[in-house]
Design goal:
- This protein is of the alpha/beta class.
- The chain has twelve helices and eleven strands.
- It has helices spanning 6-26, 34-64, 70-74, 167-170, 174-184, 216-231, 248-259, 288-293, 296-302, 321-330, 348-365, 374-377; strands spanning 107-108, 118-124, 131-137, 154-158, 191-195, 209-210, 214-215, 241-246, 266-270, 310-315, 336-341.
- It has a nine-stranded mixed β-sheet, sandwiched between helices. It has a two-stranded antiparallel sheet with strand order 6-7.
- A hairpin with a 6-residue loop joins strand 2 and strand 3.
- Helix 1 (6-26) packs antiparallel against helix 2 (34-64) and helix 9 runs parallel beside helix 10.
- The chain is globular.
């Protein structure tokens, strides 16, 4: 049974109810020596407490998108088939344009928490050596005859750590919030892409390439992008791509955007951070060189040529705001950084409230303004 969704939640509630009724029905009927009676009653009480905690956990997990599967919860997942040294560009000496066409079959996602219109495929990255699920949602215009020749802008969506690839759809309700605004033309008709980011047991692989361990950067910025381009009418140039995330995903979004301006025109960090070591479980945070290489602030400060990218950073004081100010201070044209101070907590409710503002901002950055004709969107 899936860890997420209604069936397991209902099952956990039923077990909790049964666990409460058992002591009421059997307490006085327990037979045997006093020690045995006491042990049986303790087991019944322990079962009641365990099932009650289980209901709370399932509710919290479904509400916050922390763990998408049992292997994520237990830390037994290993989604790395190979981790070759791919060099600074993460391509292993191969040009992006020369990569073979990525063929993938996208099926309807069956998890009811995801809502309508979400598709999923199981992808094995031809460059990164990572395998995992990738969720895609298409804007309402995608199948309209007037847009049949249009290539659409794309936003990759990254969760925090721990975090499920489903979270932006199931918890932040991104497609539910954006669908009417896209239909009305207020917000650009983005293709939304949510790839797996929990890739290696109980560690945060973030968006780092670490030879011999993981090529998470290449998974996100090469393989996932390539698959979306090859299977949907997605824009190919960097001007049509952005990456957004919250918490650890916000760190990754900022890093990917400044490290790969040839792949992303914009990055959004909600309550993120710059130094990978801010996440105790981060692989990149355990080594000084890796910390610098995957710190968007260090990347900006050391860049010979400032990246042509735009960042949107929001956070409360002590929770992402100062990181945004540091990025803004280090940015030189054509890099731009917009920083927004919020007063909310570090939780999905706050990030869910920011979704419309984030996508209004992305609409401006990727050049798809209200009133733009379908043909212009694909240029």
């Amino acid at each position: 049974m899936s860890l997420t969704g209604t069936p397991f939640f209902v099952t956990s509630i039923v077990l909790a109810v049964v666990a409460v009724l058992l002591p009421l029905a059997l307490w006085s009927r327990v037979r045997g020596p006093a020690l045995v009676r006491g042990a049986v009653r303790l087991v019944m009480l322990g079962f009641a407490q365990a099932t009650a905690l289980g209901v709370v956990f399932v509710a919290v997990n479904n509400s916050n998108g922390l763990y998408g599967s049992w292997e994520d919860l237990l830390g037994t997942g290993d989604h790395v088939e190979a981790a070759a040294d791919l060099g600074r560009d993460g391509l292993g000496g191969v040009r992006f344009a020369d990569l073979p066409k990525s063929k993938a079959t996208f099926r309807r996602a069956t998890d009811p928490l995801l809502g309508e219109g979400v598709r999923v495929t199981d992808l094995t990255g031809q460059v990164s050596g990572v395998r995992g699920e990738v969720y895609v949602w298409l804007p309402p215009q995608y199948d309209e005859p007037a847009y049949r020749n249009t290539k659409f802008p794309v936003v990759e969506l990254l969760p925090g750590y721990p975090g499920s690839a489903k979270a932006w759809f199931s918890t932040l309700k991104v497609q539910e919030q954006l669908r009417p605004r896209m239909a009305s033309g207020e917000i650009a008709p983005f293709i939304l892409v949510a790839p797996r980011t929990t890739l290696l047991g109980r560690v945060d692989t973030g968006c780092a390439n670490i030879p011999g361990r993981i090529n998470a950067d290449s998974w996100l910025s090469v393989d996932v992008r390539k698959t979306v381009m090859d299977n949907f009418r997605a824009m190919h140039r960097a001007e049509g791509w952005a990456v957004a995330g919250y918490s650890a995903g916000g760190h990754c979004a900022a890093k990917l955007a400044v490290a790969h301006p040839d792949r992303y025109r914009a990055g959004v960090s909600l309550s993120g951070y710059n130094d990978p070591a801010a996440e105790k479980a981060s692989l990149a945070g355990r080594d000084g060189e890796l910390r610098r290489a995957n710190d968007p602030l260090s990347i900006l400060r050391s860049a010979t040529t400032p990246p042509r990218t735009a960042l949107f950073v929001s956070g409360a004081r002590g929770d992402g705001f100062e990181s945004g100010l540091a990025l803004r201070s280090a940015a030189r044209p054509p890099t731009t950084v917009d920083v927004v101070e919020i007063g909310g907590a570090h939780d999905t409710g706050e990030w869910r409230r920011q979704v419309p503002d984030v996508f209004f901002w992305l609409t401006r950055q990727l050049g798809y303004e209200r009133g733009t004709t379908p043909s212009a969107a694909g240029r």
